[in-house]
Amino acid sequence: MDSATSLPFTLSPNASPVTAQQRAQILANPGFGRVFTDNMVVIRYQEGRGWHDARVQPFAPLALNPACAVLHYAQEIFEGMKAYRTAESGITLFRPYANAARFAKSAARLAMPEVPEEVFVEAVRQLVRVDHAWVPGKPDESLYIRPFMIANETFLGVKPASEYLFMVIASPVGAYFGEEAVSVWVSDFCRAAPGGTGEAKCGGNYAASLLAQQEAKGHGCAQVLFLDAVERRWIEEMGGMNVFFVFDDGSLATPPLTGTILRGITRDSLLTLARAQGLTVREEPYAIDQLYADAASGRLKEVFACGTAAVVSPIGRFRGPKGDAVVGKGQGIGPVTAKLRSALIAIQRGTAPDPHNWVEKVI
Ligand code: PLP
Ligand code: COI
User: Fold this and answer.
1) 3-state DSSP of the chain
2) Which of 15, 79, 182, 310 is found 20 to 30 A from 222 (Cα to Cα)?
3) pTM of the entire structure?
4) What is the pLDDT of residues 267-286, one digit of tens each?
5) CB of 269 closer than 6 angstroms to any ligand 2 atom
């Protein structure tokens, strides 16, 4: 790594932030990812010089050279994490070093320079501190934080760039899904193949998922489920979240981390919480045909999606070329899902003890 593990930040925040009244209006109904805070963090990288020029500055459009590498070869990675307002009006982050570590792994896979974990987390802290008034306080709300890195070298040859921008932006958000169990479309398209970039959080994976997601919407489904690219049989993950299954014996299963799915931090946290609740949990392959059979026989009791944006959201129905599979009654949230969801949210929002030291206080 050719840069220091910590950097000085120059603070030149927005001198004309939105008024408290405008902000209150925006926060009354934030939606998801449509509005942004007053500031952003920008850190530059140059080969030979490393990470430098770390700034908190006004949120504003970027001026990019039309020949800059990210616009042509998609050398881009990102993270998704949240800041929460606690009952005591403090502000916390959930497992930010796990995001920093995953970002470093994504960087390595895309031949990009790693942002030192401490620099990554400090950049997030700096933005949350300066924009703390934007962290909403209602139960389903939070400040969604999007750290990302782009290749910024002006050059049309195909090679890893020699210049990068690391940035952090933030958006106050409400719930990603409504209360009701969602329907999921089982896609014929593949998202990731062995040896590919499925495990990295890079924009290209999401670009590859959009047509499938569009198809899902066309079939009245909120999300798409991807199967493995080799046998087209094993359930992998959804477009933007991992997936768990709850069986009639009370056990839980989720697809294993084989390199083609994202190592979800929510997934990992729920595995820990489920084991602490005494549940039997398996990380094992689950075939789509078995899902259809188990839904029909009643062996499959609950299914849920999990991720930073989705938190824990029940799935009521699968639709696909092979027809419909209804899980349980096809609606509402099952008891195992509900208990895990409450346990996670209680830790994230500081209303329960944090035995795993997952919560980082910012303010
Ligand atoms: N899988 C994909 C493809 C995602 O985009 C996400 C969201 O970040 C997840 C899984 C869940 O990961 P996490 O729980 O770390 O947010
Ligand atoms: C996240 O949960 O952070 C994601 O990246 C998923 C996306 C659906 C917003």
Assistant:
1) CCCCCCCCEEECCCCCCCCHHHHHHHHHCCCCCCCCCCEEEEEEEECCCEEEEEEEEECCCCCCCCCECHHHHCCEEECCEEEEECCCCCEEEECHHHHHHHHHHHHHHCCCCCCCHHHHHHHHHHHHHHCHHHCCCCCCCEEEEEEEEEECCECCCCCCCCEEEEEEEEEEECCCCCCCCEEEEECCCCCCCCCCCCCCCEHHHHHHHHHHHHHHHHCCCCEEEEECCCCCCEEEEECCCEEEEEECCCCEEECCCCCCCCCCHHHHHHHHHHHHCCCCEEECCCEHHHHHHHHHHCCEEEEEEEECCCEEEEEEEEEECCEEEECCCCCCCCHHHHHHHHHHHHHHCCCCCCCCCCEEECC
2) 79
3) 0.97
4) 999 999 999 999 999 999 99
5) no
